[in-house]
Design goal:
Helices cover 31% and strands 23% of the residues. It has 391 residues and is of the alpha+beta class. The relative contact order is 0.11.
Length: 391
Amino acid sequence: MLTREGCEIRRRRLWEMVPASVEWLLIADPRHVQYLANFWVQPLSFSGGERGLLLLERDGKATLMGDNFALRSAVHDPYVDNEIVTTWYDHKHSVSNRDHALVKALGDAIGNKKGKTGLVEAEWLPLAAATILDPASYEFSASQEAGAQTLVDLGTILRLLRRQKQKDEIALLKQCMKAGDAGQARLFEVAEEGVTELAIYREIQKAAVEAAGRPALVYGDFRACYAEEPKNGGLPKDEGRKLQTGDLFVLDFSVVLDGYRSDFTNTVSIGKPSDAVVEMHGLCTAGMAGGEKALRPGVSACEVHAAVAKPYREAGREELFTHHAGHGIGLAHPEAPILVPQSTDSLMVGDVVTLEPGAYEKGIGGMRIEHNYLITENGHERLSNHEIRLS
């Protein structure tokens, strides 16, 4: 889980990026409440999908707001100084509109902020909050003092900060990777002719959750690709396809713990792979090797894409590689930096990114491989450890 020290570091970094005139911050995106206070409603609970709000004050005080069932459904104890809880359900009375309970908690927390300038995360704040907040005391965006004409908003600041992962975030991501590695290892044991896509999904999920040692969310692509459909994705549809000789099963999945996630891929050949499939796989592995050499701070995302695409281009097979070369990963999927030809992103220390070369050809099939990497001062560290092979 995230640590108190890590959350406090992230709060300090956030305050350094907002104008000195701002005295309070209202955080509304559930991912950012988790990022700054370790509060994440257990998604596998009756409060799954509910959330809390976080009020930060320049003197360091942090207040969490929400209804009584949402706050007690936290995965871990949050790192806050105060909780303002609105009773939504008491086992005696009918329930009210649950969203109104959240807004009431906000009203109780914000009442003494009149006359003080605040900054709100408007993209995630319910419109009903406007009836609580004093329009004269808060802003949706604020002028940066270092560049008077540049507007910043709280959500954008937080997304920028999220790219530079702290030690506790990296530790949590490594737990996700360990669980993902277990799922990838299980793939080689169960992928064979006659097995359904759903059966493989169940086995992968079981292996990943066992490795995580606690409840986890598992999602991604658990689909067979084949000559007629070289690019399939998503969860199995009902029982899904029964694997056949010649299929390429693509396992591109994520394990989510406390909102953070892994994302890596392997492709397994059902039966002996054809020469054409082996050639395509060789281009994918060459692309990954080229991309790895480019992973270091300051390198542009488009340069990394070019490095991954180079083996395809040199082989005259550019048409096989049709998507991004990778992307950022963390509290969202994908997130910056995006490794595409026209990206304006550049790698920075603390980024966690994927490299994800693929190859797809009608009449043969499709495949992807993928690893996850932390960008370090000296280059990169690979975080995922699954074996990439066709069989």
